[in-house]
Design goal:
The structure holds two protein chains of two kinds. By secondary structure, chain A is mainly α. Chain A has a domain at 300-499. Chain A has 23 helices and two strands. Chain A has helices spanning 2-6, 11-27, 32-56, 89-109, 114-133, 137-146, 148-158, 164-200, 210-213, 220-237, 246-253, 256-264, 267-279, 281-285, 287-309, 314-335, 338-369, 385-399, 405-420, 422-447, 464-482, 485-502, 507-513; strands at 65-73, 78-84. Residues 506-518 of chain A have low confidence and may be disordered. A two-stranded antiparallel sheet of chain B has the order 1-2. Chain B starts with 8 loop residues before the first helix and ends with a helix. The longest helix of chain B is centred in the middle third of the chain and has 32 residues, at 158-189. Chain B has helices at 9-14, 16-34, 40-64, 79-99, 110-129, 133-151, 158-189, 194-197, 204-221, 230-236, 239-264, 269-292, 297-318, 321-352, 363-366, 368-382, 388-402, 406-431, 445-463, 466-475, 492-495; strands at residues 68-70, 75-77. Chain B is globular and about 65 Å long. In chain B, helix 4 (79-99) runs antiparallel to helix 19 (445-463), helix 13 (297-318) packs antiparallel against helix 18 (406-431) and helix 14 packs across helix 20. The chains are: A mainly alpha, B mainly alpha. Chain A binds chain B through residues 71-76, 138, 141-143, 145-146, 148-149, 152-153, 156-157, 165, 169, 172-173, 176-177, 180-181, 183-184, 187-188, 190-191, 194, 198, 203, 205-206, and chain B through 325, 379, 384-386, 390-391, 394-395, 397-398, 401-402, 406, 409-410, 413-414, 416-417, 420-421, 424, 428, 431-432, 464-466, 469-470, 473, 487, 490-491, 493-494, 497-498.
Chain lengths: 518, 498
């Protein structure tokens, strides 16, 4: 019954446009409380739709599901093509989940221009969703670029730091710089398709469609050029070391809500696994590329962890720990084997819970002390036991303690890395140790020991809204940590197809397999 | 050269829009003389009425594919000419609507203002149809004559007078270059009509002649190094005239450039491509970098216009059918965004009386509508998706990358990043800074119309560009024969959007 009702229903379009339509509706509201509750309703409906997609998603399948496709600009071969597969569907759920939490978090922490804030947040959700569900590269690029606008305003208008103007501009210019290179790469893919299509008299002269582009062979020299162009786009956004310098500024100066989205949703590395690796398999596995990217990944792991160790500001620490974690993800991706890819994908999801969770914790600390500097804390566990507990749970997930989600992902990545290149694996392991070091050291100095001199004795523990955020994150962390198989099953099919494509033997089978189905 | 003036009635049909508009122009002037007490805004609506009727006539031509040539090939009406005429008329209508309030600032000759605008439009319509060097020269001077007066219309304003004088002197100089170029080309080839020149051998005289002509047209479109008049003229001229100047003559001159480079010089593409690449790179880079330092919004838009022309020239450098489509498409996107941005500038200057960027402080609070419109227009100019400007830039870049112009593309893309910086400066003033004087800004009805049209165009072209791409692809069809590689001709299925 439900099957028939929903067949052909454009659910992805609904997910995509519900937030932005909601944002427009918010414009017409005046009362701040109405705005807040409407934004929450919209975010919850969005979450419900995403959960519905997750439930109806057929696991262990490489197929593109819930596909929608219409021509958009036929003269240039651009189409409006949405679909999810095992790689992207979890991100849809994660985005919706985090947005709900950000709305809840912002309920009383955002005091001025609430309406505009919620509108920006919802617009940001639409653009992020768009990045995850677009299969047409131009459509993808549209959302990728559009994301800058709400982000710019969020950092600038609701950022706490004095340097927020600088941070916002730096963020926009850096990301834009990366994406213009990516655009060249995308155009080259299109031209390559065009040349191939005119040789074979195909009826589509131009195409930006991922599923059509992967059917066309690309000469290896061309692949490497395109790979690096797209690499720049994704690396600036991710950010991969050494393109990360905007991240600490943006995360420190921007509002917590923005930081959660920026650090929690790994758009850049998603770009690698969604576009770079399947489109350019030969370039991705060529020795030079793997070597350079791996070395960058390892540098990121060690440099990020090293920098995190010496940060006195918790948000800066988190920014560098993000850089370090992204190093893991990159290493896992370019191990180019089943475990590595699966682990990276799972880690990207995990970071959505743990890094974003730690940013919420930073937010909780900030609303109590008006700063996240270490000097303002010390021995707070006695004052705020609940906060300290959740801080520990989420933090341990972030360093990958067995039993939490972080362990599963990092373990798979290390497994993949050892299998691909033993020395990469052994260096990456160091990152795990450093990770434990910087987190635990910071935790010890801020939460344990004697009460800090500037800690107010009237400080309250977690409130209801904060509890909701912390508990729901902890549930997800423990769920993935203890019983990851539902999540792994969802991604298995697509990851397997990707591995097959990389290792050529079954390329033909993949092409048939990746064709759409509803 | 044999020349006959045997005009049949059906020949005159081709000239119908121009004839009609000429008559209408006379009507506007007469009405202004006969009833001096008539409120001047009535004259504006009268002019708009005539322009709309002409527009309707052209739309009818376009639908029925009316085409032909007149006066021994001097005047051509093809779909590209129709496209540019619609482009020019559209911008003229919007400019007139945006001027209605502003005209009150003129101390004298308010009625003649509208007549002069229509006259310039008429001249530019002839430019769009000009098919030989003589008619190009005559129509170019005809349209510029109106502009000389319009630029210095603020009689008591020193800046306006300076602008007018600069524009006049440099304009006349460009006209001189043009005439000299024509004489050289005619001397070498004995031909004036573009299509007859296609097989001429490249003699030094011919090359110099064409370079001179290119310089004169470069002056019109404001490409570096022929741009020196632009900032001061844009700054000093009455803002609606600046808006007009920044759009319509560029379109008309590009129509001529397209005909010269593709039709007359199509065989020399390997040579002129270097010229265009160089001019394009210099225009983009110079325009964008100098724009960063501007404090006045009109000057900022002037330099951004120079940079935009650099982008357009990328399409011309591609020299393919697709490149030409991209130019036309880009111009459409530019029309809506630029006229919209200038409309906001006019509305703000009506309220504040100044055009400095710092006057835009807190515009987001004072007038959310104006600020939001300006945001969209600037983002479209910068090329942010899904607005019109993005699709336009994409179209041009794809056309160029297909021809392997990688250096040009790289420079173009880096320039997008640079341009984003100064557009964001304006955005920052509007949204981040607090207003000094928080009183709301009121907007008149016609001005709102212009801004709405600009918004509608910017969004529609960005979100659903298919009808527009179909239109521009059809408009440049006749170039298909002149463009060298056969592979670049679109298969028929694409033309009907299949």
């Amino acid at each position: 019954m439900l099957e028939e009702l929903t067949a052909g229903f454009p659910i992805l379009s609904c997910i995509l446009f519900l937030p932005v339509v909601g944002a427009i509706v918010l414009w017409f509201m005046d009362d701040e409380d109405t705005v807040r509750s409407s934004a929450l309703t919209i975010a919850l409906v969005e979450l419900a739709l995403s959960v519905f997609v997750l439930l109806r998603f057929i696991p262990e399948s490489a197929a593109m599901q819930f596909a929608e496709r219409v021509q958009w600009i036929p003269a240039l071969g651009i189409s409006y093509h949405l679909a999810v597969d095992g790689i992207s569907v979890l991100f849809v759920g994660l985005t919706a989940f985090l947005t709900v939490l950000v709305v809840v978090y912002s309920w009383d922490t955002i005091r001025h221009q609430v309406k505009l804030y919620m509108m920006c947040l919802l617009a940001l959700e639409t653009t992020t969703m768009g990045v995850f569900v677009s299969l047409d590269l131009i459509l993808f690029f549209v959302f990728w670029e559009l994301m800058l606008i709400p982000s710019y305003f969020m950092i600038k208008l609701w950022g706490g730091g004095a340097e927020r103007h600088y941070a916002a501009l730096k963020f926009v210019i850096y990301t834009l710089l990366g994406s213009v290179f990516m655009l060249v790469g995308i155009a080259l893919l299109d031209i390559n398709y065009h040349q191939w299509a005119s040789l074979h008299h195909s009826d589509h002269a131009y195409s930006f469609d991922l599923l059509e582009l992967i059917t066309v062979p690309i000469p290896i020299s061309q692949q490497i050029l395109i790979f690096w162009l797209m690499f720049l786009g994704f690396a600036f956004k991710a950010p991969v070391f050494p393109f990360h310098t905007w991240l600490p500024d943006a995360l420190l100066e921007g509002p917590i809500g923005m930081a959660v989205v920026l650090a929690g949703l790994k758009l850049g590395t998603f770009g690698f696994i969604r576009f770079s690796i399947p489109l350019l398999p030969d370039a991705s596995k060529s020795d030079t590329v793997v070597m350079i990217v791996m070395v960058l990944g390892l540098c990121a792991i060690l440099y990020g962890a090293w920098m995190a160790l010496v940060q006195a500001d918790f948000r800066r620490l988190l920014a560098y720990s993000s850089v370090s974690h992204l190093g893991f993800v990159v290493v896992g991706l370019f191990a180019l084997n089943y475990q590595g890819l699966q682990g990276s994908l799972l880690t990207m999801i995990n970071l959505g819970f743990s890094t974003a969770g730690l940013f919420f914790i930073a937010g909780f600390l900030y609303s109590r002390q008006q700063t996240t500097q270490l000097a303002a804390f010390g021995g707070m566990a006695k004052q705020v036991p609940l906060l300290a507990t959740f801080f520990l749970i989420i933090g341990l997930a972030s360093i990958g303690l067995p039993g939490t989600n972080g362990f599963v992902g990092e373990f798979l990545i290390l497994l993949g890395a050892f299998e691909a290149k033993w020395w990469v694996g052994s260096i990456a392991v160091l990152g795990v140790i450093f990770g434990a070091a910087y987190f635990l050291w910071y935790y010890e100095r801020s939460m344990l020991g004697p009460l800090g001199s500037s800690v107010r004795s009237t400080m309250g523990d977690l409130q209801l809204r904060e509890m909701v955020i912390a508990v729901s994150l902890s549930i997800m962390i423990l769920w993935i940590g203890l019983y990851p198989s539902p999540f792994l099953r969802i991604m298995n099919g697509s990851v397997q197809a990707l591995v097959d494509r990389l290792h050529h033997e079954k390329t033909a089978a993949l092409d048939n397999d990746m064709t759409e189905r509803r | 050269m044999s020349f006959s003036l045997n005009l049949s009635f059906s020949d005159l049909l081709l000239l119908l829009p121009e004839i009609f508009l000429t008559c209408w122009l006379c009507v506007v002037i007469t009405v202004d003389f006969v009833s001096p007490r008539l409120p001047k805004e009535r004259l504006a609506y009268l002019s708009v009425g005539g322009l709309l009727a002409t527009l309707g006539c052209l739309a009818w031509f376009d639908m029925n594919q009316v085409s032909g040539t007149l006066f021994g090939n001097m005047f051509v009406l093809d779909r590209m000419a129709i496209f540019f005429k619609i482009f020019i008329l559209g911008s003229t209508i919007l400019v007139i609507l945006a001027s209605i309030e502003y005209v009150d600032r003129f101390t004298l000759f308010r009625g003649e203002y509208y007549a002069l605008v229509v006259m310039s439009a008429l001249g530019m319509m002839f430019m769009a149809s000009a098919n030989d060097l003589l008619s190009v020269f005559v129509s170019l001077e005809f349209s510029t004559l109106g502009f000389y007066i319009l630029v210095s219309y603020l009689r008591d304003d020193l800046a306006s007078n300076e602008a007018g004088l600069k524009f006049f002197i440099l304009g006349v100089f460009a006209a001189g270059l043009f005439a000299y170029g024509i004489s050289l080309v005619y001397g070498e080839t004995g031909k004036l009509v573009f299509s007859d020149m296609a097989s001429a051998p490249a003699t030094p005289g011919l090359i110099i002649g064409f370079l001179l002509i290119f310089a004169a047209l470069g002056f019109k479109i404001g490409a570096v190094p022929f741009h020196s008049w632009i900032p001061d003229t844009y700054h000093g001229a009455p803002t609606p005239v600046t808006a007009f100047l920044s759009i319509a003559p560029k379109g008309a001159a590009l129509a001529i450039l397209l005909r010269i480079f593709i039709v007359a010089l199509g065989t020399f593409k390997p040579t002129w491509i270097y010229l265009l690449v160089a001019v394009s790179i210099v225009s983009m880079t110079y325009g964008n970098i100098v724009a960063i330092a501007q404090r006045n919004i009109k000057r900022l838009l002037a330099y951004s216009g120079i940079a935009q022309i650099g982008n357009v020239l990328i399409g011309l450098a591609a020299g393919t059918k697709m490149g030409n489509d991209a130019i036309l498409f880009y111009l459409l996107a530019y029309l809506f965004a630029n006229i919209g941005a200038f409309a906001v500038v006019i509305a703000v200057s009506q309220a504040i009386g100044r055009d400095e960027i710092e006057d835009y402080r807190g515009l987001g609070r004072r007038s959310p509508f104006l600020a939001f419109s300006m945001l969209l227009f600037l983002l479209s100019l910068a090329g942010v998706p899904p607005l019109a400007g993005f699709i336009g830039k994409l179209y041009i870049f794809i056309a160029a990358i297909k021809e392997g112009l990688y250096t040009l593309i790289t420079v173009g893309l880096i320039n997008i990043v640079i341009s984003m910086y100064y557009y964001l400066i304006v955005v920052k003033q509007m949204y981040i800074n607090e207003p000094i004087d928080p009183s709301p800004i009121s907007i008149s009805g016609p001005m709102k119309t212009v801004i709405y049209v600009g918004l509608a165009g910017t969004l529609a072209i960005g979100i659903y560009p298919q009808p527009f791409t179909d239109w521009v692809v059809a408009a440049t069809l006749m170039f298909a024969n002149f463009v060298t590689p056969a592979a670049t001709v679109m298969p028929p299925s694409l033309l009907i959007g299949g």
